[in-house]
Amino acid sequence: MKVVVVGAGIGGLVAALLLAQAGAEVTVLEAAEKPGGKLHQVPVGEALIDGGPTVFTMRGVFDAIFAAAGTNLEAHLRLQKLDVLARHAWEDGSRLDLFADPARNADAIAAFAGAAAARGYADFAKRARQIFELLDHSFMRVPQPGLFGLMRRAGPGVASISPFDSLMDELAKYFADPRLAQLFGRYATYCGSSPYEAPATLMLIAHAEAMGVWSIEGGMFALANVFYELAFARGAKFVFGARVKSLLAAGGKVVGVETADEKFPAEAVVANADLAGIDAGFLGPAAQKAVAGMMKGAKKSLSAVTWAMTGTAEGFDPAHHNVFFAPDYSAEFEQLRAGNLPEKPTVYVCAPAGKSEFFCLVNAPANGAAADEAATQNMLAQLERCGLRLRPDNMVRTDPAAWEQRFRGTGGALYGRALAGWKDSFARPGAKTKLPGFYLAGGGVHPGPGLPMAATSGRIAAECVLTRR
């Protein structure tokens, strides 16, 4: 069976690996010169700094993929489990570390905000676990999303996870201290959404992190490179610098794809591409027709301005993952909603241990706009107000305009459809499209953004192809 995978992001790589393992004749076409998609490295002087995902969680998802490919994760990657999940800081000088151990978190929160806050956290952690365990197999790992399917699989327990409440409204039940609501509300931005609009079910991310957060020796890009090498070793062919011009269809089914230089026949095609770009016609009219209506009512997720830099840090001892919060969270998201970069943004900083390398990120509207030097100064000033003085030697900035150039039709949106209400959780398309033989993978489709979810989408797409065969 001939299969073409369009895009070598994590979803496409997983699909290619599992299809090749099953004996399919796989060709992967990637417009960039390297695999990984958003999981990429940025050259900064002599350093290579991860410029996309920085968090490795839900290891079980990847263990299962490696096992399905006839190997194991430990044979290919060296992981280090982080003691501190993230270090958080505010302008008033307060600091809070979160750990994988809930008991340590309760003690830290008690010292930070009092005994009542620690009790609230214990209740929150219990609820986050409940939501995760209910949705893990009944929603996140199934091929097609849908509220009625979830209700059928999960039963009456669905009503107990507050699917219709916003994340911030739900957090208010557990945390009177606004700093704690701000901290746990940040999980909405993992999906490119506002915590004031996103559903409370995103509390499950807290439990996903409590199961462990790891760093990868060689950086996160090593994960993409391993999947590429494993797929290649199983016979998958990779063509880099190949932008697909059109999906080819005949007789009501897929027959291949076409680049500017060549046609690739195929019985099935997996598109690991942004759905907005497919909907805009960047894979041709057959693909556009196959996804017609899938973007109906969709609001673009957030974009980001990122800085990969080398330099020095003073005044603050950074962990691997750090968050420096804006003084007014609601004002920050109001400015983003209005299409503007916040003047005082919340800043995420990844600072790998023992290195003078940093990756900084602030949320941005997905309007395809360029960021100027003021954005850099605002970011550095916010860090300094929270106690961290970064002194860059070399720096590369990436903004929504650059993301749009790389991922056409998105406006720079990095997470596909924003979760702007409870319905959006069920509105992401599954792997199947209206055209037999044409399948979708990636963070813009079910089960959603983030490395574990995008990898799961690749597994689901591969299973759909093999079932059809």
Task: Throw out a few tags for this protein.
19 strands; globular; seven-stranded mixed β-sheet; 469 residues; 22% strand; alpha/beta; five-stranded parallel β-sheet
Q: Level of helix content? A: 25-40%
Low-confidence stretches: none
State which percent range the strand residues make up: 15-25%
Rg from alpha-carbon coordinates: 21 Å
Tell me the total number of β-strands: 19
Q: What distance lies between the first and last C-alpha atoms, to the nearest angstrom?
A: 8 Å
Largest β-sheet summary: 7 strands, mixed
Which of globular, elongated, flat, extended, rod-shaped describes the shape?
Answer: globular
What is the arithmetic mean of pLDDT? 93
Question: Can you count the helices?
Answer: 15
Spatial order of strands in the largest sheet? 7-6-15-16-17-14-18
By secondary-structure content and strand pairing, the structural class works out as alpha/beta
Architecture overview:
This protein has a 7-stranded mixed beta sheet with strand order 7-6-15-16-17-14-18. Strands 9-2-1-13-19 form a 5-stranded parallel beta sheet, with helices on one face. It has a 3-stranded antiparallel beta sheet with strand order 10-11-12. 52% of the residues are buried. The chain has 15 helices and 19 strands. Helices cover 34% and strands 22% of the residues. The chain has helices at 10-21, 59-68, 102-113, 115-140, 147-154, 167-171, 178-185, 204-210, 221-233, 275-279, 285-290, 329-337, 373-385, 400-406, 451-468, and strands at residues 2-6, 25-30, 41-44, 47-50, 79-81, 84-89, 95-99, 214-216, 237-240, 244-250, 253-259, 263-265, 268-271, 303-314, 321-324, 347-350, 357-364, 389-398, 438-440.
